[in-house]
From TrEMBL:
Pfam families: Lipocalin_4 (PF13648). The keyword Magnesium does not apply. It comes from the Bacteria. Residues 1-24 form the signal peptide. InterPro entries: Lipocalin-like. Keywords: Signal. This is Lipocalin-like domain-containing protein. Residues 34-125 form the Lipocalin-like domain.
């Protein structure tokens, strides 16, 4: 009977230890996969410590919204609808995610952004050079 109590206490202690430990290696990084197609939704910046976001002016009225597609192969496709006939121009490049940084390269031009939010429904990034915030939705 005494050995059962000891085993119970050991099992309970081990269970509490395992559930109380956490992995701090990800430094707040989300585990949601970044691959997917995102529709451009809002853009903005931080003014006096507050986010100020507006509907993306890049989205032309009457056309489908511009988009960013991040493929499993690390290809990035930027879709831009423009003109009176809503002609679609797709620009292809590559992307690399390193922790909470997202770097997109098109040709010889690279842009690195902080991933501010990544969920199953939203990707919010802030350009490290310009400070511009871009919100995409799935």
């Amino acid at each position: 009977m005494k050995s059962r109590k000891i085993l119970f206490v050991l099992a309970l202690s081990a269970g509490m230890f395992v559930t109380s430990c956490s992995n701090d290696d990800n430094e707040g990084e989300t585990i949601v996969p970044i691959q997917g197609k995102y529709n451009l939704s809002k853009t903005g910046t931080i003014v006096n410590g507050q986010e100020v976001l507006v509907d993306a002016p890049q989205n032309q009225s009457g056309c489908p919204g511009d988009y960013l597609e991040l493929k499993l192969s690390n290809a990035a496709v930027i879709g831009d609808y423009d003109g009176s006939n809503c002609a679609l121009t797709e620009t292809t490049g590559t992307y690399v995610r390193s922790h909470n940084d997202l770097t997109i390269t098109v040709g010889n031009v690279s842009s690195t952004s902080d991933i501010m939010n990544l969920t199953n429904k939203e990707l919010k990034i802030k350009d490290k050079t310009t400070g511009i915030i871009t919100v995409y939705t799935r």
